[in-house]
Amino acid sequence: MTNRAGRVSVVDVALTFRRSDGPLLALDGVSLDVEPGEIVALIGPNGSGKSTLLRAIAGLLTPDRGGVTLDGRPVTEPDPAVGLVFQEPRLLPWRSVAANIAYPLELAGWPRARRDARVSELLELVGLEGAAGARPSQLSGGMRQRVALSRALALEPRVLLLDEPFSALDALTRERLNVELLDLWARTATTGIVVTHSIPEAIFLADRVIVLSARPGRVLADLPVPLPRPRDMSTLDDAVVSPLARIVRRHLEDVAA
User: Fold this and answer.
1) Which of 70, 139, 189, 237 has the most CB atoms in a 10 Å sphere around its CB?
2) Residue 107 pLDDT more than 90?
């Protein structure tokens, strides 16, 4: 892996959706910085603009005001330096696991031998070596998300964005994949931004938890997570986690009040 973690800056971003019933202000004055190699969790109520912000960082949406930079360069369109994983894996059902992972490499014009080597590397990284020829329909939900993660990492992005990637999975699978995700981040040295509705998940994954307000989304709190790495479920310190969880919950309850 040759990833070089990227620095993301969001400066005074406002973004409005034009709808038939009138404009909808989704984000208003959002500013935040994510340092290279840092993992940040975005949490907030439904409609707070978490996914909208993630798509603006990915270059899929253009702010009305303000902007996003990656390593000082304005983000104006999708960039191979930014990988994105959605809540649903969005795999191509007619392609095998290996062919799904190879798809962005094909679009980028990688030669066959180089593609095959990269796909083998990624399959090993996520523990799917034995499923290379399987179709998505033959996989469990957790396995499909591993494929989606591999595909997002194929071009060695400097930033990995995850939009509630495990929310549709059962609790045990979700917990296991969160542990695997931290290992994956450690091994790829990629900056991470993850959207979640789960306070425990946000605290477990992130170096900082950023709480967004109800629509229009604004930054209510930027809370550091004082837990050492590497982390696993058995080493979480309740003396740290419980007070931080209460602070996050209080912010969310204030928004909902």
Assistant:
1) 70
2) yes
**DSSP string covering the chain, please?**
-------EEEEEEEEEEEETTEEEEEEEEEEEEE-TT-EEEEE-STTSSHHHHHHHHTTSS--SEEEEEETTEE--S--TTEEEE-SS----TTS-HHHHHHHHHHHTT--HHHHHHHHHHHHHHTT-GGGTT--GGGS-HHHHHHHHHHHHHTT--SEEEEESTTTTS-HHHHHHHHHHHHHHHHHHT-EEEEE-S-HHHHHHH-SEEEEEPSSSB-EEEEEE----SS--GGG--HHHHHHHHHHHHHHHHHHH-
Query: What is the C-alpha separation between 171 and 178, in angstroms, rounded?
Result: 11
Q: Which residue has the tokens 């959207």?
A: 195
Cβ-count burial 57-71 (b if 16+ within 10 Å, e if not): bbbebebeebebbbe
Q: What is the pLDDT of residues 56-94, one digit of tens each?
A: 999 999 999 999 999 999 999 999 999 999 888 899 999
> pTM score, two decimals?
0.92
